[in-house]
Amino acid sequence: SVPAAILSALSAAARGGVLFKGGAALETLAAVRTFAFDKTGTLTTGKAEVTGLVCEGSEEAFLARLAGIEAHSEHPIADAVRRAAVARGLTPIAVREARAVPSEGMVGIDDEGMLWAGNARLAARMGARGEAVIPPEIAALSEGAETLVMLGRGARILGAVTVADLPRDSSKAGLVALRQAGVRRIEMLTGDRRAVAVRIGAELGITPDEIHADLRPEDKVKLVAGFATQGRVAFVGDGVNDAAALARADVGIAMGAAGSEVALQAADVALLSDDMNRLAMAHRLSRRTARVIR
Ligand code: ADP
Ligand code: MG
Questions:
Q1: What subcellular compartments does it reside in (predicted)?
Q2: pTM to 2 decimals?
Q3: Is 38 a catalytic residue?
């Protein structure tokens, strides 16, 4: 039977909006040595904004096309693009057979043929790489510490937008509380570019050596497995391109409110309020409970 101390800790956590799938997850959390965090939608709000745009021809036609392909994505970046199109009163153009290339972007078909939207990795995959194909004004746009989303057709790049995302209000305090509770290792794992990750990290007290960028979903899993050789690992994510890492961690912690169904399924713990202070609270509770039952 489950000790009374665990039951009462589980219900105290639940009152604070932290749902554990069982007592084992609570006990494991107490022993976690490394907390690994996804960036987009986890440490950041996932409420990104389009901050810059460079394209050939009409900006309206370009943005309507980009919004058309992003209409099929659940990524926070796609949401930012769709909102930018709505703000200009644009109707997204029809894109069919759209699918996600995880941690890279989207591919689909519009009235003129194959279309893609995404980062430099996806651009390279489509044959667009180097100065010959990436227009200088787009290269310049990508020098800032913002996420670059290019729209292309094969090796031809039609234009790009930059998208910026802000840290959650609770992220900094939550991380400070975890470190104060004696958590030695905090790591950021992201599919985004390093410059963007370092800028967000600087706002949150995460140092460059704690940042792992340009990762694909399988790279996140490998890193989590690597941390696991040195003690228990918790992975905190929103389920967009990180469900496998959530599942691989000793404790998978899903952002509940913004997070996807997949995240909640792959996780051991759900943070219903998306509040990192609540994560620190749940961690303290797990430590206290572990001391009582030992
Ligand atoms: P994170 O690990 O920070 O949560 P992801 O792995 O979800 O980030 O995404 C990594 C990168 O993949 C993004 O920074 C972006 O460059 C690209 N990307 C992912 N989804 C999309 C999309 N729908 N449209 C454009 N780019 C995308
Ligand atoms: Mg994410």
A1: Cell membrane; Membrane
A2: 0.90
A3: yes
